[in-house]
Amino acid sequence: MTTMKWSLLFSCSLVQPLTLLALLFVLITTSHLVVSYSSHDYNDALTKSILFFEGQRSGHLPSNQRLTWRGDSAVFDGSTAGVDLSGGYYDAGDNVKFGFPLAFTTTMLAWSVIEFGDSMPSGELLNAAAALRWATDYLLKTVSLPGKIFVQVGDPIKDHNCWERPEDMDTARTVYMVSEEKPGSDIAGETAAALAAASMVFRSLDNEYSVTLLQNAVRVFKFADDYKGAYSDDAGVRAGVCPFYCDFDGYQDELLWGAAWLRRASQDASFLTYIQDNGKTLGADDNINEFGWDNKHAGLNVLVSKEFLEAQEYSLESYKASADSFMCTLVPESSTSHIQYTPGGLIYKPGGSNMQHVTSIAFLLLTYANYLEKTSQIVNCGSISVGPTSLRLQAKKQGITL
């Protein structure tokens, strides 16, 4: 891809949520799947995708910071609430740390390394792990006080009205939190998912840290399940997170998503039981064909399908059926296809932030293709059968269009 095209892509991403870059990173880690279709330099794209996260870092920067034009910023975040909330990532081109999409970004970074890390150059794999740890170190701080989760730092209205470097920031660093009295099952469930997924990445890199992540994931998930509610239902939190990252789709999917990641990371039977017993109550059968920071249904179905396919856990068959149904909607030849494509073949969904949909869907296509191939399975889409090769082809088209 030409320098100009990459420049345009990354300048656009600055006004997108940080999740877009995580999902772009996920797509590019599968560059070995598109080499024969394109002469684009996907290794360079991978390097730049991970490097972008260093440009978004908040807090005290490490000595090995590669983007040296960035300096320390927001080092006293959380002081007004009596807690250290320095670190983490700024969202897009502003200086706010929005916890809900940041946690989802963390989950996706971890999932990408889990599924495709073996295809990455060793140096970039370590850079990816460093990017992941910068997020999880911050998330651990947000859940450090019992009965509370700090969900955001920064007043978005004041911040968005003042365009300035984070190093020069003089806008309010307002802290928002949820608690037992003001629950936030959505952000707690996503944070649990992020910590659990990341624990799998660090198992071979830093086992002690991996254990810490998983222990905190279990604790945070219990909080999410014991005190149910959407974080943006509270008036105080809503004033800070809406309309930017309100919970529009409910917290139920995050509970299942968190449980699914805890099951995969820990292999604890209690989380399998949770998914089995609570699936219908929490909307697992709704078969909503969405995947992003606010709606985890399609990703949940793909993730849980792995255990059905590989471990033959037949109680999870409905998740596989829902994952199949979602895949069929993405295949133009299928009678149930309802995804729009641009003339060039890019997935198109009316509304803003289209690239989030493109990259998240491409990731699910590639991941599900791997699960199917490993178990010699296909997807039946009415009159046609779709195998791993077809799903990868759909994802490749998105990579080439990018």
UniProtKB/TrEMBL annotation:
Its EC number is 3.2.1.4. Keywords: Glycosidase, Hydrolase. This is Glycoside hydrolase family 9 protein. It comes from Dioscorea alata (Purple yam).
